Amino acid sequence: MTSIDEAAPGRSAASDAAADVLRGHIRDIQDWPQPGVVFKDITPLLSTPAAFGVVVGALVDVARERGATTIAGIEARGFLLAAPVADRLGAALVPIRKQGKLPGPTRSATYDLEYGTATIEIHADAVRPDERVLLVDDVLATGGTAAAAHGLLAGVGAEVVGLAVLMELSFLPGRERVAPLDVVPLLTI
């Protein structure tokens, strides 16, 4: 069942509109990428410019409310959201990539997956200590990637002002794993 987290502080008309848009533009793909998983596909959202604009606008509001000076997008779908948010704000954009995808010196963080580990990286000079960074991604599920991204940014002295996501899967422990980071989902499932 999909529902808006009515108790979320700071809900605005824009975030309520974004939740309504998301309900109509997220497709469930059964048993992908493995049996038993219901994948939340944002392709219908991306292929509908007006709907995508509403969602980006709500994410821009989240960034403004938190005084973000930099937007960090988590690979890969986080890039699709973070770039237009940074553009609308006139803010810096920091890509958080899978290991081995960035040229030059990097900082990395390794985190646990269900079966193994993964590593993400940022350029060593991507963020200055005085920057206020909003992390952006499509889904908060188990929280491993978001927690690692938060650690990377905090490790260079940036102030991470929150994690904005299209959807939070509330039946998974993502929020607990990224605590005390402020999580702002546009839609809670």
Structure characterization notes:
The radius of gyration is 16 Å and the shape is globular. With about 190 residues, it is of the alpha/beta class. The protein starts with 12 loop residues before the first helix and ends with a strand. The protein has one domain (about 15-189): Rossmann fold, CATH 3.40.50.2020. Helices cover about 35% and strands about 30% of the residues. It has helices spanning about 15-25, 45, 50-65, 75-90, 145-155, 175-180, and strands at about 25-30, 40, 70-75, 90-100, 105-115, 115-125, 130-140, 160-170, 185-189. Strand 7 (about 130-140), helix 5 (about 145-155) and strand 8 (about 160-170) form a beta-alpha-beta unit. Mean pLDDT is about 90; it is low at about 1-10. The protein has a 7-stranded mixed sheet, sandwiched between helices. Strands 1-2 form a two-stranded antiparallel sheet.
